[in-house]
Amino acid sequence: LTVLNAGRRYLKAEDLAGKVFVTSGLGGMSGAQAKAAVIAGCVGIIAEVDEAALLKRHKQGWLMEISNNLDHCIARLREARKNKIALSLGYHGNVVDLWERLVHELDSTGELLVDLGSDQTSCHNPFNGGYYPVQLGFEEAKQLLSTDPAKFRTLVQESLKRHVAAINKLADKGMFFWDYGNAFLLEAQRAGADVAKKGANKTEFRYPSYVQHIMG
Questions:
Q1: Beta bridge partner(s), residue 89
Q2: Exposed (0-12), middle (13-18) or buried (19+): which is 97, by Cβ within 10 Å?
Q3: Urocanase Rossmann-like domain location, by residue (predicted)?
Q4: What are 141-172's pLDDT values in tens digits?
Q5: Looking at domain 1-215, which of 3.40.710.10, 3.40.1190.20, 3.40.50.10730, 3.40.50.2000 is its CATH number?
Q6: pLDDT of res. 202
Q7: Could you count the other beta carbons within 10 Å of the beta carbon of residue 153?
Q8: So where are the chain's domains?
C-alpha cells in the first residue's frame, strides 16, 4: 500500500509497471519491500549488506533474484523497466554504492533510472549495527564496530552524508523519495547531511514521511 500510494501521490500513476523503486534492507520488517514491489507491479531493487538476510528472503520466495554485481543490477533494471516486467532484485552490497551508481548513470547518459526511493536500514540504531558504512565491507565493518566504535560512528555519519547527496541529485531530476519511519532523515541531519526543508523550521525535512504524507 505504501508503494502504491507513493506512486499515486507522487507519480500520479495508478499503474506502476515500468516504474523503478530503489531501497535498502531485507531483514525484519524491511524484508517485505521486495514482495511489495512485485505486488505493485514495479521493478524493485533492494540493497542488503548482510548476505544471510538476502539469501533468507530469496529462499522464502520474497525476492526473485540476487546479485552482487552493480553492472548486472543496472542491466536487469533497464531490461525490466523497458519491458514493464515486475521484478524484485536483491543487491548484495551497500545501498550507497547503488545510489551513487544511479547518479553516475544519470550523469553519463542523462537517464533517470529510478522513480521512487526510500530506505529501511535500522537508522533508529545506526551506531550499533543498524546501518553499515559504505567505506567498509560488511565483515570489516562488524570488526571495527567491536574494536573502535568511535571510528565506526564517524564512518557511518560520513556514509549518511554520501547517501543523502546521491538521493538529492536524483530527486532534483524527478525521483520521489520518502522516509519509512526508520529515523533515516533524523540521523542524516545529525550527521550534517542536506535534508532540511528550504524555508521551513529545522524539524521539517525536504522529504515526506510515509506515515503522515503517504498512508495518512
A1: 45, 65
A2: middle
A3: 2-214
A4: 999 999 999 999 999 999 999 999 999 999 99
A5: 3.40.50.10730
A6: 67
A7: 16
A8: 1-215
